[in-house]
Specification:
heterohexamer; A alpha/beta (135); B alpha/beta (130); C alpha/beta (100); A: 135 residues; Hypothetical Protein Ychn, Chain: A; C: 100 residues; alpha/beta; five-stranded parallel beta sheet; globular
């Protein structure tokens, strides 16, 4: 099979309380080398992964949140965030890290990676995928 | 049809490993192929040969080892997740200066690329976890 | 598309999230502690009854039995399958999403 | 300290999906040897632990539910079940295993161990304890 | 009596169960993912606002910082403590119940 | 005041072990006594010396071992839970026919009675888990 598959990594866990977000991100970064059509979805508590200003020093844990900024360099630039999940949590898009990527087809213009979508749009996106992994 | 299975929790604590095992067995019994079983997160703890469950309970690790030997199943333990949790084979023990290993028969330690490859090569990838 | 749910709707939001995102025509399979979502006459039965109007909902028989739940305790329309039926559902659908 | 403490084991997990119920019961059975004032509480999905007719053979797991019947012999005979938790789950007391103990102070009369209590009564019981373990 | 809650109220019923069973005068400490329960303006804020009428509610500072939550995002009345404050709360109360 | 602490989840997967560690350290720093730390369920996985976490992350197992050696902390791993999950010391390895052990320095394997005793002897018992 020489095909390209559509991979979606769904993130539904908050960071730090469990390792799923952290180890899920490691899968995405490794998976980027396989040149598939990749996107990430942030649903429910998963939206907390993208919260700005995470500082784990006092909790004595590793702060893996800067690694989300590397996603653009790995050509992982479709990060769908469910609007309803943000709203239920009292968050807005301004609370999220400003993640970007450089579009080589557009003179390396810096473009936002995060796309806030409605639940209905998220539902459509799920249906389009070939492989879904859930972290 | 070609299946792959991902197991994200350790033995006994969550039912995930049990359900993954029963699904894998049923898929093989129905004549399907199982390309790979990939163990991630605490799932790597399914791959230790050091367990001694009570006599009147199932032996989850042995069950996987036996299924692997009967069906030439590829049981892959993620190396990064295994390092965090203390699952080591002879190579890993050497590389990380450990005085022994604990990997169970039929399991091998490899990278996350094996999971992505399973997703690409298989018709269906099923995930079992918490 | 096949969705699996393995958590109790009384303790976790997984089933609610799954049903909010699953499209009409989807198959939903309740496994492990997820089978409690199939119980009739519970505080969350309506959620599954509504789903049944546009989707098929299944519950894994071995997990129902393990928990002492006879089929007559299920919401009418929820179908019971074994591990072989789980394999068939995973084959018949183009992909599987596990709401862990 | 020669004191007797009031121990409460709170059970909030369904059986089989996770090991907490099973390993929690092992703690109670071992703890019975220490002659403390012991009770168990079943709250939320914990009430499912006492459901009758559990049969794990097809799931290939160990059926530990018969061990609840041994509790009476270990003088663990105060099993408080929250009524509201039963109701929310569409269950009634008739769905629960008929657990009993023999009262040596009353000519070994067989008495029920399960006591269905209201949420308010459960709240009072929590306050009375010295040590609370949660499974 | 000190109650600790370590799960997000958006995904788990732990906080709701804790608050339903905690008596007036109790101390509630939100730790780990439980600190999300302290967020103002969320779908579950009312639950904690009601609790604050008869109990004290605390959130663990290191866990708030780890999650990028500044104190001004908390429901007014929720107090922030460090690990030393956690130890003090555990000492000051006669027992501790962890709603895991 | 005399505290005991119970840890019910393994390292890294859940924050429970981190919070328990920070609490224990803070209690000791405030001059309290910590009678015992008891590891149950997947918590027993904190007691393996086979982990090799990434260099830029905390080493959860070593942290416990060091705290134990600094403060003569009693770190007890439940034997029944350890058998299900493959944590063994030299005695257990012999008894169960294992070809090696993996217990980390400062941890000892013992029975559930040690937990009950901690509940009886301590002024407060705190539980950290999932």
């Amino acid at each position: 099979m020489s095909e390209t598959k559509k991979f979606m990594y769904i993130n539904r866990h908050a960071p730090h309380g469990t390792v799923y977000a952290h180890e899920g991100l490691e899968v995405v970064l490794i998976g980027a080398a396989f040149e598939q059509d990749v996107c990430m979805a942030f649903i429910g508590d998963g939206v907390f992964q993208l919260k700005q200003d995470q500082d784990t020093s006092e909790a004595g844990m590793k702060n893996f949140s800067p690694a989300y900024r590397a996603l653009g360099d790995y050509e992982v630039n479709k990060l769908y965030v469910e609007r309803e999940s943000l709203q239920e949590r009292g968050l807005s898009e301004a609370d999220l890290m400003p993640l970007t990527w450089e579009d080589e087809d557009d003179d390396w213009a810096e473009k936002p990676s995060i796309r806030v979508v409605s639940r209905a749009e998220m539902s459509d996106l799920l249906e389009e995928q070939d492989v879904i992994l859930n972290f | 049809m070609k299946f792959s299975v991902m197991v994200n929790e350790g033995p006994y604590t969550h039912q995930a490993s049990d359900t993954a095992y029963q699904f894998t067995r049923a898929a093989l019994a129905a004549g399907h192929e199982v390309f790979r079983v990939f163990f991630y997160h605490d799932g790597v703890n399914n791959g230790t040969r050091m367990t001694t469950p009570p006599q009147d309970d199932r032996n989850i690790v042995d069950r996987w080892s036996e299924l692997a030997s009967e069906h030439e199943l590829d049981l892959v333990v993620c190396v990064a997740a295994a390092q965090r949790r203390g699952i080591v084979d002879a190579d890993e023990a050497k590389r990380n200066g450990k005085d022994g290993d604990n990997i169970a028969p039929g399991f091998r330690i490899s990278g996350l690329g094996q999971l992505i490859e399973a997703g690409i090569q298989s018709d269906r990838l099923l995930v079992f976890g918490d | 598309m096949l969705h699996t749910v393995n958590k109790s709707p009384f303790e976790s939001s997984s089933l609610r999230t799954c049903l909010a995102l699953a499209r009409a025509g989807s198959d939903i399979l309740l496994i492990e502690d997820g089978v409690y979502g199939g119980l009739a006459g519970s505080a969350h039965s309506t959620m599954v009854e509504d789903a049944l109007k546009s989707m098929k909902v299944y519950a894994l028989g071995p997990d129902l039995k393990a928990r002492g739940l006879a089929e007559d305790r299920l919401i009418p329309g929820v179908q019971v399958v074994g591990y072989d039926g789980f394999v068939d559902l995973a084959s018949a659908n183009d992909k599987v999403q596990s709401w862990l």
